[in-house]
Amino acid sequence: MLEGDGLSEKLDKGLVQVYTGDGKGKTTAAIGLAIRAVGRDFKVYIGQFMKTLDFGEHKALARFEDKITIEQFGSGEFHVEETPSEEEIERAEKGVEKIRESILSGDYDIVIADEICVAYHFGLLGLEHLMDLIDIKPDDVELLFTGRKAPEELIEGADLVTEMKEIKHPYKRGIKARRGIEK
User: Fold this and answer.
1) What is the pLDDT of residues 136-175, one digit of tens each?
2) Structurally, how many domains does the chain consist of?
3) Measured between alpha carbons, how far is 111 from 11 in angstroms, rounded to an integer?
4) 182 assigned to some structural domain
5) Domain that holds residue 56
């Protein structure tokens, strides 16, 4: 529910959302929500775990730099088949701290923890990191978690959960990620 004069609307009740599953589109859906929010004069913070590349969304979101802040917490050196290094764990924990600060700052209406579920799945973060973000969330902040393999406890603690299910993907036919489409 929205309050306000239509020009500077604010959230009356912020919820917790989770976008998970093995299908494509979790980050894309979160960014779509961010752009919709900017249309209502909301401010958005996006913290990306596991990412370091210059994705197309960064170029697009730079046009909204007065309303959307985006930061990355990966090093680009972690490989999923490896045990995480202390440095990777520290980067992820610093990322959680930035998410926490953004939630509590009063500066943002929506906070997106992109790929945080993947960081949890690969042992960069503990479940307590994720659940603490829900516990500290003020009523007027929307909090969104994305990533494959969302833990059941996070799903239970959320108000809205969407699972992206892969039916068919060109990657399985050898087609690599394409600029402007997947990256």
Assistant:
1) 999 999 999 999 999 999 999 999 999 999 888 777 788 7
2) 1
3) 13
4) no
5) 13-173
